[in-house]
Amino acid sequence: MSDKRKVILDCDPGHDDAFAIMLAAAHLDLLGITTIGGNCSLQNVTKNALKVLEVIGRQDIKVYPGHSCPLVAPLVTAPQFHGPSGMDGPVLPEPSIKAQEKHGVDFIIDTVMGTDDVTLIATGPLTNIAAAINKEPGIVGRVKELSIMGGSVTYGNWTPAAEFNIFVDPEAAYRVFNSGMHVKMCGVNLTRQCFLVQKHVDQFYRIGTRSAVFAAQLVEYFMDATEKNASLAGANIHDACAVAWLIDEKLIQAVPMHITVELKGEFTRGMTVCDYRHLRGPEPDIDLHRKPTMDFRGEEPNAEAALELDFEGFTELLDKTLACYP
């Protein structure tokens, strides 16, 4: 029996989701992957997940398509960053393995209700997780924790206030954050610190495994798209942070916060409203070492918000992972 942490990865591949899959498959007991319309259409992100599994030789991991669009709004995608396929760059054959017939939400529910200590990881919009909670509220008490890439303690990336994954389906995110499930949030304030540049691409090519070359090609495309659309000379591998946190908690410093999601604001819809008043001293910056107190009129923290990444440790983990695959 494996002593690795049991996880389900809910994702929308996506270049950075591909890194999340590679990390999870190598270091965690990945019970299955569920997909969600987000970076691209459900059909494309599901195909991309299957392609990644074939590249790394993990065809044993099953993929379960979930919802194709948000709970109440039309789907917003990000082709300017990920291309029409959702994972442009590497040229890969059509996957020989197929997605499962079972709906992703039902897979989440059945697995969590039938397996102890399952951790959920979500690196796309939270539609599938919210739908699972709505259909079977009992999963809230059985999920060990939920590690997400989404939101921000500071400013957004899709709008001034909102990060993409939360913006796509804020109603789902609101349901999740207010469900009672323990949430570990890797927001863009943290994932901006996970910034790969050409020297990292060169290292992947030196590692030379099929997975490492695939990773290099992913980053090359993502760097180019990011430079064109965000004027940044590198690529943020956002989604991998939510997985790395579970592999080695020392890689990320986090603090407890109460987090909810704005649904009605004309300019702030999708914003993660993070209350860190209990962590502030006389200076305006967040004090990571200040002991949390409840000496303010706020709500109890319902989540952990990631603030600082050990980037060198992260890249060491990533290099080790890419070298371990055939």
The low-confidence runs, each spanning 5 or more residues with pLDDT under 50, are none
General form = globular
Determine the number of helices (DSSP H or I, runs of at least 4 residues).
13
- What fraction of residues sit in β-strands? 15-25%
Helix content: 25-40%
In whole angstroms, the N-to-C terminal distance is 23 Å
Structural class: alpha/beta
- SSE topology string: EHEHEHHEHHEHHEHEHHEHEEEH
Strand count, sense and closure of the main sheet? Answer: 9 strands, mixed
Domain Inosine/uridine-preferring nucleoside hydrolase: 7-315
Pfam family, one: IU_nuc_hydro
Keywords: Glycosidase, Hydrolase
Organism: Enterocloster aldenensis
Written account of the structure:
The chain contains 13 helices and 11 strands. It is α/β, with parallel strands linked by helices. Strands 3-2-1-4-5-6-11-9-10 form a 9-stranded mixed beta sheet, with helices on both faces. It is globular and about 50 Å long. It starts with 5 loop residues before the first strand and ends with a helix. The mean pLDDT is 94.
